[in-house]
Amino acid sequence: MTDLFNNIHGKRIASRKVTGRVRGLYIASGQDFVTQSVDKLHCDHGGIIGDYHYGMTRRAGGREPWYERGTLIRNDRQLSLISVEELEKIATAMGLDVIRPEWIGANIVVEGIADFTLLPAGTVLFFDSGLTLKLNGLNAPCKVAGTSIAQHIGAQNEAMVALNFVKAAKYLRGQTGWVEREGAAEVSDKITVRMPEQLCYAPD
Hints:
This protein is of the alpha+beta class and 204 residues long. It has helices at residues 2-8, 84-93, 143-153, 158-168; strands at residues 12-13, 16-27, 36-38, 40-44, 47-48, 57-59, 72-74, 79-83, 108-111, 124-127, 132-138, 175-181, 183-186, 190-195, 198-199. The protein is built from 4 helices and 15 strands.
C-alpha cells in the first residue's frame, strides 16, 4: 500500500465539500429538449417527472460510439445543469448579450460553484429541498444546442452560430446527472457539493 501511495503521490486530490445555490429551474415539458422556467422540480429515480428526458433508460447515440445507435442503456443524462457564471462566459465568447438556459435545455442553473463544468464525475449535489443528484461528468457542447441558440436570436447563418457555440462552450457547458435520492429542488435552494477523492490514472 505504501508503494501504491508513493506511485500516486502528487496525482491525488482529496475529497472536498463546497456550497452553491440554485439560480433557476427548468423543465422540458414539450416534445423537444427546450425548457421552460418553473419554481420547483419534482424528481424520482427516473429523473424530473414530466420532463422530455425522463426515464430509467435511454437510447445510445453519438456520444456512445461503442454501442450500436439505439441500444437501450442506463439513463445517466436525466438532468442538464449549468452555472450562471459559465453561461455568461459562453455568451461573451460568442459576442452575445445573453444565452437563456432554456435555449440549450438546461434543467438547473447553479451559482457560486467555481469551475462547475470541471467537477469530477461522481460528485454529489445535495439540495435543501431534499433532492440528491450524482453528476455524470462534463456535458460536451453540441451543434443541436447551438442551432437552438441561433434560432432564438434569429441568426441568418445558423450553422456558423452552432459551430461557434461548440467552440465557445468547450469545458463550460456544464454537467449531466441522474437522481440518486428522490426529492424536490426549489429556486434559491442551497446546494452542498461533495466531491470524491480524485486519483489520476496514468500508467507507464
